[in-house]
Amino acid sequence: MNIELGPLSPEPFMLALGLTLFFLITWTLGHRILPRVERIQAERWDATEGRAERAEAIRAEAEAAHDAGRQELAQARHEAARIRQEYAEQGAAAVAAARAEGIRDRDRLVTATHARIAADQAEAAEQLRQDVGELAVTLAGRVVGEPVHAVAAGRRTVDRFFRSR
Question: Is the pTM of this model over 0.85?
């Protein structure tokens, strides 16, 4: 079967040369030029969209760190509030204890002072009786014109007068 293709029928040498050059060019493109083109495209993609993706990843990481920081800050504030509350309660308990101690001291001092005042009052009353008795005897002696010390001491008139009151 010999088909006559006319001007389209290639010569075997030209066909072999054409195919060889075709495969040589294809191999050169596949092994030399296309990898360089792909590398350059990858570099350009990395320079444009890759940076955007990395920036997005860094932003997401920064947001996560920011959220973690806010959470730590919230926990620290909560802990500080708890500690303030605890120390406020301890302070209130200390004030109440100091107040109770002060009241006990005050009551003890008031009781001691009342006892001291009562003793001083009794002593002053006794001293006053003696002084008033002596003054009364002296005054009676001046009124009568004679000393009445011996009579008053013998009869104990002044002591009976004060006891009857």
Answer: no
